[in-house]
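Form 12-C: Joint structure prediction
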Amino acid sequence: MRFVLRSTQAASLCLLITGWWVPMSESLGWSRYAHETSGHLAEIHLSAEAQTAVEALLGDDSLGEVAAWADRVRGERRDTAPYHYVNGPRDQLRPSHDDLHLPQGTAYTAVLKYQQALRDDDLPRQTRIEALKFLVHFVGDIHQPLHTGFADDRGGNDFEVIYRDEPYNLHRYWDLNVIEPRLDRFSAREYADHLNRSYSDAQKALWITQTDPKPWVTEARRYIFAGLYPVPRHGEHEGGQQRTTPVPIMDETYRDVWMPAAELQLARSGLRLAGILNEVFAD
Ligand code: ADE
Ligand code: ZN
Ligand code: ZN
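Section 2 - Result
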């Protein structure tokens, strides 16, 4: 509920500024809640050295607290807008080298770029602080399957669905709603603790070693190729309104199938972020 309120506020704020309602789904990104959860989960798995280095850069802020910052500055930092996703072809699971390395950058190149910046002690302190905040965020984004989707529908932003009897889009549902039952139950920090308890030590020990972002992209895209796009249905939707064209309905059956996948992705993102930071700050 809390988040629903927040997104409504964002929409009205948009109306206020632009004088016209422009959907804010893209700029909100894989929800603030998901990013914060991933950051808090990483905190649990930082080495002592990485913890010290992170504290030296962020001061009183934690990884969870800075994780959604990149979405808030997307408007001012136009160069970073393409860093929030990495798309690939519809007919091929694995993105090509060119898909990963677009001239304007992708989420994949962003993770490499900011990791490199963090390793560079000669860079100004402010640049390295930003690099850390961007890194936390883009590791999270790559784990939202629709941030690794198709360019022609902008990662499902242009794919219309019905959610709670209202027109909605698939990307937005995945950013904001797929894990909504968790939001009603846990704060981001509690959710990170819950995820940490939900997966085995062996599983987490493997994820923390998986610091190369290239396989993450294929892994996230696998969900898209395994039926993440819901099938349009004919007939009445739940509001009782007859539709002439079939539109997919985001119902509880869909959530029961896909929430576990979204959670698994969140858990992986937290552990992999910790793995990267532990490596970066070990040298
Ligand atoms: N714009 C284009 N592709 C996108 C994606 N996969 N996610 C978010 N915004 C996009
Ligand atoms: Zn998004
Ligand atoms: Zn983002």
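Section 3 - Comments
Residues 252-280 form the longest helix (29 residues). The pocket of zinc ion (ligand 2) is lined by residues 29-30, 144, 147, 171, 175 (CB under 6 Å).
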